[in-house]
Amino acid sequence: MTQRSIYLDNAATTPLAPEVFEAMRPFMEHHFGNPSSTHHFGRKTKTAIERSRRAIAGALNCLPAEIYFMSGGTEADNIALRCSVDDLGCTHIITSAIEHSAVIKTAQLLEQQGKIRLSLVNLLPNGHVDLDHLAQLLDTPDKTLVSLMHGNNEIVNLLPIKQVGELCAQHDALFHSDTVQTMGHYTFDLQDLNVHFITGAGHKFHGPKGVGFLYVDKALKINARITGGGQERQLRGGTENLYGIVGIGAALELCTQDMAAHKSHVSSLKQHMARELESRLPGVEFNGDSRSEDSLYTVLNVTLPESNNSGMMLFLLDLEGIACSGGSACSSGAAKGSHVLTAIDAIRPNRASLRFSFSRFTTREDVDYSIEKIVAICGIKEVV
């Protein structure tokens, strides 16, 4: 019998949508011109890049000139933080212990280099940012950058991004939000948000890998980070990733076509899995806001009951054809546990914490099969 192959690790990366591949195909097969060339081969590809830039700007309600193409979310986060310090005069960065490592490690390095003072905002027991403490940290004469992600990639808490932006505005602080996990799943009106930088990565919403973007508020003047040919309005020199840029624009357009239906489908799968695990596994726990319908609807973070198989859970599920993760894919291979779960004191001895994440291609049958295998591997008699 052919083994099932079920992918529940969409927070790490998503499969490329067929429509996106078709949009990329002509530029992989026929339209090969260098976008910096002035002949018609180059003009054809340059037009495609600018069309993608306009599509992303239209989805976010910002200017095309405020969108810079990057290699992904990690580079975009790095540039936002480094430019805030080097070009915009920030000497103080406020972030949290549960941010993506692209933010935490960059901020720590800037602190080690003596460029900034680093503050970590307190977290509430459920992993949410303590906004009162954030206000206290902002009460400083130092030029400050606040960097807080919109949707946590593990415990799925959503930041009240508009409220945080207003708080930053009250203190004349810059605001960067890593929106990699929420881009393509939520709408953003950048004319209504006081946010100076946001980031996106194509492979998180059925686009290609190796391409992302950084939104930079037009009022900010930042300098080149990669010098060379002057691409991306002098910020990032180098021949553009043509296929990727075409793909990320097509992917975001696809996501915005029927976002409500997508949310309904994915949310129903997540809530179904949560209900079944809760009813069939005594002692199961859900981390952060995972059980809430007001959380990031694409991800469910579960701590399973104690089991002899806890240490092998990911491996045993993989043998059954089920792919999920024990945390962020960006820290896979590390011996230590999730820094996010550690920060909110959610690590439980002899209990496996797993992250299941869903997409438009996930089916109810995929989820039901996975539930049966999880229950069986846990080796716990179901609650009657």
Q: How many domains?
A: 2
Straight-line distance between termini: 31 Å
Q: What name does CATH use for the topology of the largest domain?
A: Aspartate Aminotransferase, domain 2
Low-confidence stretches: 331-335
- Kindly name the structural category: alpha/beta
Strand order of the largest sheet: 2-8-7-6-5-3-4
Radius of gyration: 21 Å
H and E order = EHHEHEHEHEHEEEHHEEHEHEH
Averaged pLDDT:
94
* CATH top level class name of the largest domain: Alpha Beta
Outline: globular
Helical content stands at 25-40%
Q: Biggest β-sheet, characterized? A: 7 strands, mixed
What's the quick description here?
The protein has helices at residues 18-29, 40-60, 73-86, 101-112, 131-138, 161-170, 242-257, 259-280, 313-319, 339-343, 364-378, and strands at residues 6-7, 67-70, 92-95, 117-120, 144-147, 174-178, 197-201, 212-216, 285-286, 299-303, 322-323, 353-357.
Notable characteristics:
single chain; 384 residues; alpha/beta; Aspartate Aminotransferase, domain 2; 11 helices; 12 strands; 12% strand; globular
Q: How would you characterize the overall build of this protein?
A:
By secondary structure, the protein is α/β, with parallel strands linked by helices. The protein has two domains: 6-15 and 258-378, Aspartate Aminotransferase, domain 1 (Alpha-Beta Complex), CATH 3.90.1150; 18-257, Type I PLP-dependent aspartate aminotransferase-like (Major domain) (Aspartate Aminotransferase, domain 2), CATH 3.40.640.10. Helices cover 37% and strands 12% of the residues. It is built from eleven helices and twelve strands. The strands form three sheets. It has a seven-stranded mixed sheet with strand order 2-8-7-6-5-3-4, sandwiched between helices. The longest helix has 22 residues, at 259-280. The radius of gyration is 21 Å and the shape is globular. Mean pLDDT is 94; it is low at 331-335.
